[in-house]
Amino acid sequence: MKFTANQIAEILEGEIVGNENVEVFKLSKIEEGEEGSLTFLSNPKYKNFIYATKASIAIVNKDFVPEKEITTTLIKVDDAYKAFSKLLEFYNQVKLNKQGIEQPTVISETAIIGKNLYLGAFSYIGNNVKIGDNVKIYPNVYIGDNVEIGSNTTIFAGGKIYSETIIGNNCSIHSGAIIGADGFGFAPNAEGHYSKIPQIGNVVIEDNVDIGAATTIDRATLGSTIIRKGVKLDNQIQVAHNVEIGINTVIAAQTGIAGSTKIGENCKIGGQVGIVGHITIGNNVQIQAQSGIARNIADNDVIQGTPAIGYSDFNKSYVYFKKLPQMAATLYSIEKEVKALKEEE
Protein backbone atom coordinates (compact mmCIF):
# COMPACT_ATOMS: atom_id res chain seq x y z
CA MET A 1 0.00 0.00 0.00
CA LYS A 2 1.26 3.44 -0.92
CA PHE A 3 0.22 6.78 0.57
CA THR A 4 1.13 10.29 -0.49
CA ALA A 5 2.07 13.07 1.89
CA ASN A 6 -1.18 14.77 0.95
CA GLN A 7 -3.26 11.70 1.93
CA ILE A 8 -1.42 11.35 5.25
CA ALA A 9 -1.81 15.05 6.03
CA GLU A 10 -5.56 14.74 5.48
CA ILE A 11 -5.78 11.82 7.90
CA LEU A 12 -3.75 13.69 10.55
CA GLU A 13 -5.08 17.19 9.79
CA GLY A 14 -1.48 18.29 9.40
CA GLU A 15 0.44 20.91 7.41
CA ILE A 16 2.81 19.80 4.64
CA VAL A 17 6.26 21.35 4.26
CA GLY A 18 7.81 19.93 1.09
CA ASN A 19 6.55 17.66 -1.70
CA GLU A 20 2.88 16.83 -1.14
CA ASN A 21 3.00 14.11 -3.81
CA VAL A 22 5.91 12.09 -2.39
CA GLU A 23 4.86 8.49 -1.66
CA VAL A 24 5.65 6.12 1.21
CA PHE A 25 4.93 2.41 1.55
CA LYS A 26 6.54 1.48 4.88
CA LEU A 27 7.30 2.81 8.35
CA SER A 28 10.71 3.29 9.96
CA LYS A 29 12.58 4.63 12.97
CA ILE A 30 13.99 8.07 12.23
CA GLU A 31 17.60 6.83 12.58
CA GLU A 32 16.90 3.97 10.15
CA GLY A 33 14.79 5.88 7.61
CA GLU A 34 15.00 4.85 3.96
CA GLU A 35 13.55 6.24 0.77
CA GLY A 36 9.86 5.36 0.63
CA SER A 37 9.47 5.22 4.41
CA LEU A 38 7.52 7.34 6.88
CA THR A 39 8.94 8.28 10.28
CA PHE A 40 8.30 10.76 13.09
CA LEU A 41 10.19 13.05 15.48
CA SER A 42 8.80 13.77 18.95
CA ASN A 43 11.72 13.22 21.34
CA PRO A 44 14.27 16.08 21.19
CA LYS A 45 17.06 13.51 21.79
CA TYR A 46 16.56 12.33 18.20
CA LYS A 47 16.48 15.79 16.61
CA ASN A 48 19.84 15.41 14.87
CA PHE A 49 18.55 12.41 12.91
CA ILE A 50 15.98 14.57 11.10
CA TYR A 51 18.81 16.15 9.11
CA ALA A 52 20.38 12.82 8.09
CA THR A 53 17.39 10.53 7.69
CA LYS A 54 16.59 9.25 4.21
CA ALA A 55 12.89 8.79 5.08
CA SER A 56 10.62 10.37 2.48
CA ILE A 57 8.18 11.83 5.05
CA ALA A 58 8.60 12.77 8.71
CA ILE A 59 5.84 13.77 11.12
CA VAL A 60 6.97 16.58 13.45
CA ASN A 61 5.45 18.94 16.02
CA LYS A 62 4.16 22.28 14.76
CA ASP A 63 6.73 24.16 16.83
CA PHE A 64 9.66 22.35 15.17
CA VAL A 65 11.94 24.83 13.38
CA PRO A 66 14.78 23.33 11.29
CA GLU A 67 18.24 24.62 12.11
CA LYS A 68 19.64 23.52 8.75
CA GLU A 69 18.50 22.11 5.42
CA ILE A 70 16.13 19.12 5.40
CA THR A 71 15.41 17.03 2.32
CA THR A 72 12.59 15.04 3.94
CA THR A 73 9.00 16.21 3.46
CA LEU A 74 7.57 17.28 6.81
CA ILE A 75 4.01 16.98 8.07
CA LYS A 76 3.50 19.32 11.03
CA VAL A 77 0.92 18.37 13.67
CA ASP A 78 0.06 19.35 17.26
CA ASP A 79 1.55 16.17 18.75
CA ALA A 80 3.82 14.05 16.55
CA TYR A 81 3.77 11.02 18.85
CA LYS A 82 -0.04 10.88 19.04
CA ALA A 83 -0.33 11.53 15.32
CA PHE A 84 2.02 8.68 14.49
CA SER A 85 0.06 6.38 16.82
CA LYS A 86 -3.15 7.41 15.05
CA LEU A 87 -1.52 6.61 11.73
CA LEU A 88 -0.37 3.19 12.99
CA GLU A 89 -3.95 2.44 14.03
CA PHE A 90 -5.25 3.52 10.62
CA TYR A 91 -2.59 1.45 8.85
CA ASN A 92 -3.44 -1.58 10.95
CA GLN A 93 -7.14 -1.24 10.14
CA VAL A 94 -6.39 -1.08 6.42
CA LYS A 95 -3.96 -4.02 6.60
CA LEU A 96 -6.40 -6.19 8.53
CA ASN A 97 -9.48 -5.20 6.56
CA LYS A 98 -10.24 -8.66 5.20
CA GLN A 99 -13.73 -9.55 4.03
CA GLY A 100 -15.73 -12.54 2.88
CA ILE A 101 -15.85 -16.22 3.73
CA GLU A 102 -12.97 -18.32 2.50
CA GLN A 103 -13.16 -22.02 1.74
CA PRO A 104 -13.08 -24.59 3.15
CA THR A 105 -14.93 -23.55 6.30
CA VAL A 106 -17.73 -25.07 8.38
CA ILE A 107 -20.65 -22.95 9.61
CA SER A 108 -23.51 -24.60 11.47
CA GLU A 109 -26.94 -23.98 10.01
CA THR A 110 -28.07 -22.84 13.47
CA ALA A 111 -25.41 -20.12 13.76
CA ILE A 112 -26.54 -16.48 13.58
CA ILE A 113 -24.01 -14.35 11.71
CA GLY A 114 -23.91 -10.53 11.64
CA LYS A 115 -22.95 -8.23 8.78
CA ASN A 116 -19.50 -8.08 7.17
CA LEU A 117 -18.06 -11.27 8.62
CA TYR A 118 -14.57 -12.30 7.58
CA LEU A 119 -14.04 -16.02 8.09
CA GLY A 120 -10.65 -17.49 7.20
CA ALA A 121 -10.10 -20.91 5.64
CA PHE A 122 -10.31 -24.07 7.78
CA SER A 123 -12.30 -22.33 10.50
CA TYR A 124 -15.25 -23.94 12.28
CA ILE A 125 -18.37 -22.32 13.74
CA GLY A 126 -20.51 -24.60 15.90
CA ASN A 127 -24.21 -24.89 16.73
CA ASN A 128 -26.20 -21.91 18.01
CA VAL A 129 -23.24 -19.54 17.77
CA LYS A 130 -24.13 -15.82 17.67
CA ILE A 131 -21.68 -13.45 15.97
CA GLY A 132 -22.09 -9.66 15.74
CA ASP A 133 -21.24 -7.26 12.93
CA ASN A 134 -17.78 -6.62 11.47
CA VAL A 135 -16.20 -9.63 13.18
CA LYS A 136 -12.97 -11.03 11.75
CA ILE A 137 -12.11 -14.68 12.33
CA TYR A 138 -8.79 -15.70 10.83
CA PRO A 139 -7.87 -19.17 9.48
CA ASN A 140 -7.85 -22.28 11.66
CA VAL A 141 -10.08 -20.83 14.37
CA TYR A 142 -12.44 -23.09 16.32
CA ILE A 143 -15.69 -21.64 17.70
CA GLY A 144 -17.59 -24.13 19.87
CA ASP A 145 -21.33 -24.50 20.37
CA ASN A 146 -23.38 -21.71 21.99
CA VAL A 147 -20.57 -19.15 21.83
CA GLU A 148 -21.51 -15.46 21.62
CA ILE A 149 -19.16 -12.91 20.00
CA GLY A 150 -19.90 -9.18 19.94
CA SER A 151 -19.37 -6.73 17.09
CA ASN A 152 -15.96 -5.50 15.86
CA THR A 153 -14.10 -8.33 17.56
CA THR A 154 -11.11 -10.06 15.95
CA ILE A 155 -9.91 -13.61 16.59
CA PHE A 156 -6.54 -14.24 15.01
CA ALA A 157 -5.32 -17.46 13.42
CA GLY A 158 -5.43 -20.60 15.52
CA GLY A 159 -7.60 -19.24 18.33
CA LYS A 160 -9.77 -21.81 20.11
CA ILE A 161 -13.02 -20.67 21.71
CA TYR A 162 -14.72 -23.47 23.66
CA SER A 163 -18.49 -23.84 24.06
CA GLU A 164 -20.63 -21.36 26.01
CA THR A 165 -17.94 -18.65 25.98
CA ILE A 166 -19.26 -15.07 25.78
CA ILE A 167 -17.04 -12.42 24.17
CA GLY A 168 -17.97 -8.74 24.04
CA ASN A 169 -17.49 -5.96 21.50
CA ASN A 170 -14.17 -4.59 20.24
CA CYS A 171 -12.06 -7.43 21.59
CA SER A 172 -8.84 -8.86 20.14
CA ILE A 173 -7.90 -12.48 20.76
CA HIS A 174 -4.48 -13.30 19.37
CA SER A 175 -3.10 -16.44 17.79
CA GLY A 176 -3.06 -19.61 19.82
CA ALA A 177 -5.18 -18.27 22.68
CA ILE A 178 -7.48 -20.88 24.22
CA ILE A 179 -10.63 -19.62 25.89
CA GLY A 180 -12.88 -21.92 27.90
CA ALA A 181 -10.81 -25.09 28.36
CA ASP A 182 -11.59 -27.09 31.50
CA GLY A 183 -10.38 -25.73 34.80
CA PHE A 184 -7.81 -27.81 36.70
CA GLY A 185 -10.26 -29.58 38.98
CA PHE A 186 -9.55 -33.04 40.42
CA ALA A 187 -10.46 -34.76 43.70
CA PRO A 188 -8.71 -37.75 45.33
CA ASN A 189 -10.79 -40.92 45.56
CA ALA A 190 -10.66 -43.93 47.88
CA GLU A 191 -8.15 -45.74 45.65
CA GLY A 192 -5.70 -42.86 45.90
CA HIS A 193 -6.30 -41.71 42.33
CA TYR A 194 -7.69 -38.39 41.19
CA SER A 195 -11.15 -38.10 39.68
CA LYS A 196 -11.99 -35.21 37.40
CA ILE A 197 -14.52 -32.67 38.69
CA PRO A 198 -16.79 -31.65 35.78
CA GLN A 199 -16.24 -28.04 34.73
CA ILE A 200 -19.70 -26.88 33.63
CA GLY A 201 -19.33 -23.10 33.86
CA ASN A 202 -18.10 -20.75 31.15
CA VAL A 203 -15.86 -17.76 30.39
CA VAL A 204 -17.23 -14.22 30.05
CA ILE A 205 -15.05 -11.61 28.34
CA GLU A 206 -16.47 -8.10 28.39
CA ASP A 207 -15.91 -5.25 25.89
CA ASN A 208 -12.54 -3.83 24.78
CA VAL A 209 -10.45 -6.71 26.08
CA ASP A 210 -7.14 -7.70 24.47
CA ILE A 211 -5.89 -11.26 24.99
CA GLY A 212 -2.33 -12.10 23.95
CA ALA A 213 -1.01 -15.04 21.95
CA ALA A 214 -0.97 -18.45 23.66
CA THR A 215 -2.83 -17.13 26.70
CA THR A 216 -5.29 -19.58 28.27
CA ILE A 217 -8.43 -18.75 30.23
CA ASP A 218 -10.19 -21.71 31.85
CA ARG A 219 -13.94 -22.12 32.17
CA ALA A 220 -15.47 -22.02 35.64
CA THR A 221 -16.36 -25.12 37.61
CA LEU A 222 -19.72 -23.42 38.26
CA GLY A 223 -20.65 -19.89 37.24
CA SER A 224 -18.18 -17.89 35.16
CA THR A 225 -14.54 -16.95 34.82
CA ILE A 226 -14.85 -13.21 34.15
CA ILE A 227 -12.54 -10.79 32.35
CA ARG A 228 -13.98 -7.29 32.83
CA LYS A 229 -14.02 -4.34 30.41
CA GLY A 230 -10.74 -2.93 29.18
CA VAL A 231 -8.49 -5.69 30.55
CA LYS A 232 -5.22 -6.23 28.66
CA LEU A 233 -3.55 -9.63 28.94
CA ASP A 234 -0.08 -10.21 27.50
CA ASN A 235 1.10 -13.41 25.83
CA GLN A 236 1.39 -16.75 27.66
CA ILE A 237 -0.74 -16.00 30.70
CA GLN A 238 -2.70 -18.67 32.59
CA VAL A 239 -6.04 -17.64 34.09
CA ALA A 240 -7.62 -20.48 36.07
CA HIS A 241 -11.25 -21.38 36.69
CA ASN A 242 -13.55 -18.89 38.44
CA VAL A 243 -10.96 -16.10 38.42
CA GLU A 244 -12.29 -12.56 38.04
CA ILE A 245 -10.12 -9.73 36.69
CA GLY A 246 -11.39 -6.18 37.22
CA ILE A 247 -11.86 -3.31 34.79
CA ASN A 248 -8.75 -1.94 33.00
CA THR A 249 -6.28 -4.22 34.74
CA VAL A 250 -3.13 -5.03 32.73
CA ILE A 251 -1.07 -8.20 33.20
CA ALA A 252 2.33 -8.97 31.65
CA ALA A 253 3.53 -12.25 30.16
CA GLN A 254 3.96 -15.59 31.94
CA THR A 255 1.82 -14.67 34.92
CA GLY A 256 -0.22 -17.48 36.44
CA ILE A 257 -3.43 -16.93 38.42
CA ALA A 258 -4.85 -19.87 40.38
CA GLY A 259 -8.54 -20.64 40.75
CA SER A 260 -11.19 -18.41 42.33
CA THR A 261 -8.89 -15.45 42.90
CA LYS A 262 -10.42 -11.98 42.45
CA ILE A 263 -8.28 -9.17 41.05
CA GLY A 264 -9.53 -5.59 41.32
CA GLU A 265 -9.75 -2.68 38.91
CA ASN A 266 -6.84 -0.75 37.37
CA CYS A 267 -4.17 -3.13 38.65
CA LYS A 268 -0.75 -3.46 37.02
CA ILE A 269 0.84 -6.90 37.30
CA GLY A 270 4.36 -7.57 36.00
CA GLY A 271 5.70 -10.60 34.18
CA GLN A 272 6.16 -14.04 35.76
CA VAL A 273 4.00 -13.23 38.77
CA GLY A 274 2.49 -16.25 40.55
CA ILE A 275 -0.83 -15.74 42.35
CA VAL A 276 -2.36 -18.43 44.57
CA GLY A 277 -6.03 -19.32 44.51
CA HIS A 278 -8.95 -18.07 46.62
CA ILE A 279 -7.49 -14.66 47.51
CA THR A 280 -8.57 -11.09 46.77
CA ILE A 281 -6.34 -8.41 45.26
CA GLY A 282 -7.70 -4.87 45.68
CA ASN A 283 -8.02 -2.00 43.21
CA ASN A 284 -5.06 0.00 41.86
CA VAL A 285 -2.53 -2.57 43.07
CA GLN A 286 0.92 -2.78 41.48
CA ILE A 287 2.79 -6.08 41.62
CA GLN A 288 6.41 -6.13 40.46
CA ALA A 289 7.74 -8.85 38.15
CA GLN A 290 8.50 -12.34 39.50
CA SER A 291 6.59 -11.76 42.72
CA GLY A 292 4.76 -14.57 44.50
CA ILE A 293 1.37 -13.58 45.93
CA ALA A 294 0.03 -15.83 48.68
CA ARG A 295 -2.25 -13.48 50.64
CA ASN A 296 -4.94 -10.86 50.16
CA ILE A 297 -3.66 -7.48 48.94
CA ALA A 298 -5.30 -4.20 49.98
CA ASP A 299 -6.20 -1.38 47.59
CA ASN A 300 -3.36 0.79 46.26
CA ASP A 301 -0.53 -1.46 47.52
CA VAL A 302 2.77 -1.72 45.60
CA ILE A 303 4.45 -5.03 46.37
CA GLN A 304 7.37 -7.20 45.37
CA GLY A 305 9.18 -10.41 46.30
CA THR A 306 8.48 -14.08 47.05
CA PRO A 307 6.54 -14.23 49.23
CA ALA A 308 5.63 -10.67 48.30
CA ILE A 309 6.07 -7.81 50.78
CA GLY A 310 5.62 -4.05 50.48
CA TYR A 311 7.65 -2.60 47.60
CA SER A 312 9.47 -0.02 49.78
CA ASP A 313 10.10 -2.68 52.46
CA PHE A 314 11.56 -4.96 49.79
CA ASN A 315 13.94 -2.25 48.56
CA LYS A 316 15.10 -1.46 52.11
CA SER A 317 15.59 -5.16 52.84
CA TYR A 318 17.52 -5.68 49.62
CA VAL A 319 20.26 -3.35 50.90
CA TYR A 320 20.87 -5.92 53.62
CA PHE A 321 20.44 -8.93 51.32
CA LYS A 322 23.44 -7.78 49.30
CA LYS A 323 25.52 -7.38 52.47
CA LEU A 324 24.66 -10.75 54.03
CA PRO A 325 28.07 -12.38 53.30
CA GLN A 326 29.90 -9.37 54.78
CA MET A 327 27.54 -9.25 57.77
CA ALA A 328 27.99 -13.01 58.36
CA ALA A 329 31.78 -12.60 58.30
CA THR A 330 31.55 -9.71 60.77
CA LEU A 331 29.28 -11.73 63.05
CA TYR A 332 31.67 -14.70 62.91
CA SER A 333 34.58 -12.39 63.82
CA ILE A 334 32.64 -10.97 66.79
CA GLU A 335 31.79 -14.48 67.98
CA LYS A 336 35.49 -15.41 67.93
CA GLU A 337 36.40 -12.31 69.91
CA VAL A 338 33.68 -12.98 72.51
CA LYS A 339 34.82 -16.59 72.83
CA ALA A 340 38.44 -15.48 73.32
CA LEU A 341 37.45 -12.99 76.01
CA LYS A 342 35.47 -15.66 77.87
CA GLU A 343 38.49 -17.99 77.80
CA GLU A 344 40.67 -15.26 79.35
CA GLU A 345 38.35 -14.85 82.33
Structure report:
This protein has 345 residues and is an alpha/beta fold. The chain has two domains: 93 residues, MurE/MurF, N-terminal domain (Udp-n-acetylmuramoylalanyl-d-glutamate--2,6- Diaminopimelate Ligase, Chain: A, domain 1, 3-Layer(aba) Sandwich); 210 residues, UDP N-Acetylglucosamine Acyltransferase, domain 1. Helix content is 17%, strand content 30%. The chain is built from three helices and 40 strands. A twelve-stranded mixed beta sheet has the order 8-11-14-17-20-25-28-31-34-37-39-40. It has a ten-stranded parallel beta sheet with strand order 9-12-15-18-21-26-29-32-35-38, with no helix packed on it. A hairpin with a 2-residue loop joins strand 39 and strand 40. It is flat, with a radius of gyration of 27 Å. The mean pLDDT is 94.
Backbone CA Rg: 27 Å
Q: What topology, given as strand order, has the largest sheet?
A: 8-11-14-17-20-25-28-31-34-37-39-40
The DSSP helix count reads 3
Helix content: 10-25%
The gross shape turns out to be flat
Low-confidence stretches: none
Percentage of β-strand residues: 25-35%
CATH A-level architecture of the largest domain: 3 Solenoid
CATH superfamily of the largest domain: Hexapeptide repeat proteins
Average pLDDT, rounded to a whole number, is: 94
Total count of domains: 2
At the third CATH level, what is the topology name of the largest domain?
UDP N-Acetylglucosamine Acyltransferase, domain 1
Secondary structure category: alpha/beta
The N- to C-terminal Cα distance equals 92 Å
| Total beta-strand segments | 40
The biggest sheet amounts to: 12 strands, mixed
